[in-house]
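Hmm, how's this folded?
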Amino acid sequence: MTPEPTEKLVLSDEEWRARLTPEAYAVLRGHGTERAFTGCFVGTHEPGTYVCAGCANPLFRSGEKFESGTGWPSFTRPVAEGAVRERVDRSHGMIRTEVLCARCDGHLGHVFPDGPPPTGQRYCMNSAALRHVPE
């Protein structure tokens, strides 16, 4: 499943609150982080595609998911170039790379340069920001 070019999804705060669960809203719109090992996708391995819980933009394939031991679902790369965007995150006294949905700008998690081959990347995502679409 390769993402089709789509327009940005821009909604008001009220529309986002109506569309999302409180937990998904806190993560996607409030840049929150779920507690380690509490997300529903931490240990799952069913074939399919992980999409944005806010706008259904395809983000990651299950074949790129790996067990990082960090307590969050981790992937080696996005489903396609342009599926996500990255920006510098200087919150909490650290400098990290935040990962956002390219369609709705929802906060998904962070990417770190300590993943396995072939990319060496660890896209550490919040389960609350994702929805799994089975193959």
Residues 82 and 120 are 19 Å apart (CA to CA). The chain has one domain: 13-134. The chain has a mean pLDDT of 94. The helical segments are 13-19, 22-28.
